[in-house]
Amino acid sequence: MLQGNSFNLAERIEQIYTKKLPFVVYHKPEDNFIRCISQTDDSLSILTDFTEKGFVFAPFTDKSGSILFPKKNTISENFSLSEVDFVSKKQHFTVKKEAENKILHEKLVKKGIDFIKSGVVDKVVLSRKEVLEITKFDFTTTFLQLVKKYPNAFSYLWYHPKIGIWLGATPEILLQVKKNRFKIMSLAGTQAYNGTKNVVWKTKEIQEQKIVTDYIVNCCGEKNIACKISDAYTVKAGNILHIRTDIQGNISDTNTISTLIEVLHPTPAVCGMPKSKAREFIIKNERYNREFYTGFLGELNLDYTTKRQQRNIENHSYKRASLETNLFVNLRCMQVQKNAIELYLGGGITKGSIPQDEYTETVLKSRIIKNIL
Length: 373
Description:
The protein is an alpha+beta fold. The chain is 26% helix and 38% strand.
């Protein structure tokens, strides 16, 4: 692993982007550095299985379209947060077809509620795409401001010349594996943060989050994977709050990573329940292709070297490498287009949902990005 010394981070991003080489820069929650992984050529590598090593970027529906920056074909650099220049820059934008967006999304939610009441599904997650017209969008500055403003999120800037530019700040872990321990996050339910410590949740949000937790636990049970479940608690993500439950357990080998992802993705938090029926409804009715929104991204089987005290040898230590996987659900994200950026916004729909409230929830989520701009 290289240390980023000869360039500051912004200069390094500009250098790689000018050469049209694939790269990702990202900050994991509470890390004290930003990592930059860049390919040595512009090849497009597709993930074949979850025993490979590298950085993966997976779409919502077709897992065969998961893109991998293979470790063997990349350079990895770390940039200390204390040395990063977090210069802010005001960027002017206008929301395209805002009134139409509201009408269409509320109609979609109403259709989703009727679908749930018909008894086919218990929950479906519906989303919309909001286009912001903007000239000379500065993606590097925007990424750095995401890192600064949301240190507890997974913030990233991802580029491939054959795909385009994506960036975002997601609060949701899909799967973490360290040695033989895994951790899964069940995150759902949304309300605005108003500064109070006494948070009260409505029945609709509590039920929505419980559906996600129960689904994950049942999936683990079907694969004979024992797990421990925490109590539900409230977490803050930018200007909004969610309900979270942590699910942890042991795995035996890397094949179980593939098994867990197979049953987890897409989770009820981004798709619905039952998964297959909810996904069919989404693809048929959302009127656009989610692409990598509500997919997942992150480190796959990467080596981390840590110091350990060696037994029976006084005042000596040794280095021990372990493989880690850190995958996050691609929420609160955007895709960069020419003179525009596309925000992806959604929420969980249950039979108790109200269309106007669901649209308001997407507006709250859009401010995660808009506050940066």
